[in-house]
Amino acid sequence: MKIINLSETDSILNRFVAELRDIHIQGDSLRFRRNMERIGEIMAYEISKEFSYTVKHIESPLGIAPVSMPGDQIVLSTILRAGIPYHHGFLNCMDYAENAFISAYRKYKDTLKFDIHIEYIASPPLDNKTLIITDPMLATGSSMELAYKALLTKGTPQQVHLAAIISSEQALTYLTEQLPFENITIWTAAIDTGLDEHSYIVPGLGDAGDLAYGEKI
C-alpha cells in the first residue's frame, strides 16, 4: 500500500481544506459542501495521473490531433452521507465513471464505544476496473476497511484508490496493517495527529455529515 499526502506540496487545495476546518466559515453549509466538492475535483485530477493512457487520434475541424487518453474503467464509490459532495467533485471530472454507494455508520454501545455497520450497498461489477472509494474523514479507518471489503463482493478491481480529505495517523496505520496490498493507494489532503475520546479527528473539523447536511438524531 502507498500513501500520498497532498498537503506536502503547496497548492490551492490547502485553502479549501482550511475553509472546511474554519469555525467562522464552516457554518455556511452551502460553502462547506462546495469546498468538499472542489477538493474532490482536485483529488480526481491527482489520481488520474496514475491511470493507464493510450494515444487516440481526434478529428478536429482543421485536422487530426493525437491525444493521450485514459483507458481505465472507473467506478466511483462513496460512503453515505458525508461523502456525497466529495463524490460529486470526482464525478465532475470523471463523468464517464460508473458509481457505487455504501451506507456505513457508527452504532454506539455506550457514549464512547461503537461498531461500524453497513446496511446498504449498490455497485456495478468491479472485476478488472479501477475502484475509487471516497470518504472525507478517515478517523479510525474501520469504515473504509469495511466499505472496501463489502465492495469486493461485487468483483475484484485491478487498482484501488482510497481518497480522504483529512486522515488521522491512527487510521493510516490501521489501514496499512489491514489492507497491505500493492494495488491500493491512499490519497489524503491532510494528516492529523490524534483522535479524541469519541474517535473524532483532532484537530479535524468536526462532523462532516452534520456540517454538510444538518444535525441528525
Question: What is the straight-line distance between the termini?
Answer: 37 Å
DSSP strand count: 12
Helix and strand sequence: EHHEEEHEEEEHEHEEEH
Principal-axis shape equals globular
The pLDDT mean sits at: 94
Give an overview in words.
There is one protein chain. The protein is of the alpha/beta class and 217 residues long. It is 30% helix and 35% strand. It has six helices and twelve strands. It has helices at 13-21, 29-48, 84-93, 142-151, 169-178, 208-213; strands spanning 2-5, 53-60, 63-70, 74-80, 98-108, 114-122, 130-134, 137-138, 159-168, 184-192, 194-195, 201-202. The strands form three sheets. Strands 1, 4, 5, 6, 7, 8, 9 and 10 form an eight-stranded mixed beta sheet that branches. A two-stranded antiparallel ribbon has the order 2-3. Helix 2 (29-48) crosses helix 3. The radius of gyration is 18 Å and the shape is globular. The termini are far apart.
